[in-house]
């Protein structure tokens, strides 16, 4: 199998990317329209991979070894986590900030994302701390704090133009996923429902929790509905609760992810935007 290496990073000089690329002894190098560097037919031995990854990290660049010839046409679906993947914030942490509890909730969130805590139990604990908060706080978080991750919109535009469907599957909340579905023209969404009574959060989630297993099942259900295997999905995430759905996809993408996720992903984007996946897939 012929392997290529794609090197990219915001503001990283082309000469530095080339210097890293030569470590993989490529047959040729091609500068892509995005400014990324594709090194073709490289020596992807363990020692070369280790050297390239270390040099890329030092240069604040992303290095991806990928089978030659892979393109968006190989896929039918892009499945994305929401918090800290499609968007820059953890919504529950920002909601908690309205209660003066951000530090406490963020600590639990971080532990859960690193895989140190059971996700469902941690979400139940965090949501319980929100009891009594006016539901209008959710709108404030959406309007004042929610921002798309770098490269999100060009990435979505490109995958839609290529005919892929889009799924936003989140351990967060439908209040945000439904608004993003409308705003970004997403095809499918699935998330947790916060219970509201008399205009205030009760501190409970309605129905089952969207945990790692449910995220994986959601990708499977959407793929089945499309009549394709899960291997036709590109799956993006950042936390330990994304690993199961990433594991069944044909290409897993760790975006600004926790170490446990980066270590298991096919593509790790530590510095580039979400649209960097386009260069990995031949763009």
Automatic annotation (TrEMBL):
Enzyme Commission number, as recorded: 3.1.3.3
Gene3D superfamilies cross-referenced by the UniProt entry: HAD superfamily/HAD-like
Pfam families reported in the protein's UniProt record: HAD (PF12710)
Cofactors that this protein relies on: Mg(2+)
Record's keyword terms, sorted: Amino-acid biosynthesis, Hydrolase, Magnesium, Metal-binding, Serine biosynthesis
Reactions catalysed according to its record: O-phospho-D-serine + H2O = D-serine + phosphate; O-phospho-L-serine + H2O = L-serine + phosphate
Keyword tRNA processing (UniProt): no
InterPro entries: HAD-like_SerB, HAD-like_sf, HAD_sf, PSP
This protein's pathway: Amino-acid biosynthesis; L-serine biosynthesis; L-serine from 3-phospho-D-glycerate: step 3/3
UniProt GO MF annotations: hydrolase activity
Domain of life: Bacteria
Family: Belongs to the HAD-like hydrolase superfamily. SerB family.
UniProt protein name: Phosphoserine phosphatase
Natural source organism: Massilia jejuensis
């Amino acid at each position: 199998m012929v392997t290529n290496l794609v090197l990219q990073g915001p503001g990283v000089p082309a000469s530095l990317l080339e210097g890293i690329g030569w470590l993989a002894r490529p047959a040729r190098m091609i500068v892509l329209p995005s400014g990324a560097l594709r090194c073709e037919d490289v020596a992807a031995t363990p020692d070369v991979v280790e050297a390239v990854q270390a040099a890329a990290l030092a240069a604040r660049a992303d290095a991806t070894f990928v089978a030659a010839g892979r393109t968006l046409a190989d896929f039918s679906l892009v499945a994305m986590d929401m918090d800290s993947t499609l968007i820059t914030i953890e919504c529950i942490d920002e909601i908690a900030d309205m209660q003066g509890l951000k530090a406490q909730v963020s600590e639990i969130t971080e532990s859960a994302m690193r895989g140190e805590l059971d996700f469902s139990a941690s979400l139940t604990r965090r949501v319980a701390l929100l009891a009594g908060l006016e539901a209008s706080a959710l709108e404030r978080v959406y309007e004042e704090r929610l921002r798309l991750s770098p490269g999100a919109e060009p990435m979505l535009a490109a995958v839609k133009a290529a005919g892929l469907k889009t799924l936003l599957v989140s351990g967060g909340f439908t209040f945000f996923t439904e608004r993003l579905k409308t705003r970004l023209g997403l095809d499918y969404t699935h998330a947790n429902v916060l219970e509201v009574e008399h205009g205030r959060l009760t501190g409970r989630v309605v129905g089952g929790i969207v945990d790692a297993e449910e995220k994986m099942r959601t990708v499977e259900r959407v793929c089945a509905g499309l009549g394709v295997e899960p291997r036709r999905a590109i799956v993006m995430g950042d936390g330990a609760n994304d690993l199961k759905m990433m594991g069944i996809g044909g290409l897993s993408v760790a975006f600004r992810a926790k170490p446990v996720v980066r270590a298991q992903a096919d593509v790790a984007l530590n510095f580039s935007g979400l649209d960097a996946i386009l260069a990995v897939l031949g763009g």
